[in-house]
Fold each of these.
Amino acid sequence: MNRIIRIAAALALTMSLAAGAIAAEGTSISGEVKKIDESAGKITLKHGPAKSLGMEEPMTMVYRVKDAAMLKQVKVGDKVTFEAEEATSGYTVTKMQKAK
Ligand SMILES: [Cu+2]
């Protein structure tokens, strides 16, 4: 009996983790790197609509990056998917990876 409860609990945890991952995925934005300014910790991205950021139209704009190392992982012309948040210092990229 105890064993079944443990399995059920493990399953419930796994499912809630999976649901969280899907929700986070929904906020990722497709874009293209237009410019990188490593000394300023900024990147210019051309991107499609990003409703999570209140950007209904495609645009090209400058973002800060949460971690300067992110700028070394991409180069101008790369297609990327990223997540961003609106911070007091400006829009900040929190996650970025090359699009496959
Ligand atoms: Cu934008």
Amino acid sequence: MRTSTTVLLLLTVVVLAPSVSATHVSGNAGQHIAGSAVQQACEETDEYDVIELEAENYDGSDSDQSESPFEVVADETASGGEYVRAPNATADRYLSSPTRSDAFENNSISYTFDTSVEDEYVVWGRTVAPNGTSDSFWVAVDDGEPSRWFVPQSTEWEWRRVNVTTILGADENVTYNRTLVTTPLAPGEHTLHLGVREAETRLDTLVVTNDPDCVPASDD
Ligand SMILES: [Ca+2]
């Protein structure tokens, strides 16, 4: 005969409220989002900022977009359900070698974010760059000159770090020297500018961080 023993386990469930970091700025500016996929991969600490920006929430995106060279596209595989691209219809707004001029300002969108420490920051983007004529943006921080960001090609969303690309060799021997960009930033408000280079290059999310070991990841 089997003796049935009922063991009552009293489980004390401690629900730890997520450590919600300060949201430094309002409106469409960068959010320090607790519990997001990015935060799981890159932990925000007193030492490190991890600032996540939805590309579609650029400054002024909730107002008149008719002048923007970028358009917001719905995509269920994108974070927040949307991404931005310069459509082929605006391919003539391609900037070949811009400086900080009216042409750049008129053909770029911007993102405001706050940093909390003085350090070298890097920028990551969740991108699709489907082919060799749709794989680049211009990126500038604050009043800096634009850097040509050649995005490594992919047809699925991939996290890519902003670089300055030098083309080495020619034709079939072409290789690329992608120098990853770091930007020294003081604590406070900053602006990241994204300019049109090649149409149909897609950007879903941006991450600005001073954690050199942070490699963003997504559940996809
Ligand atoms: Ca997005």
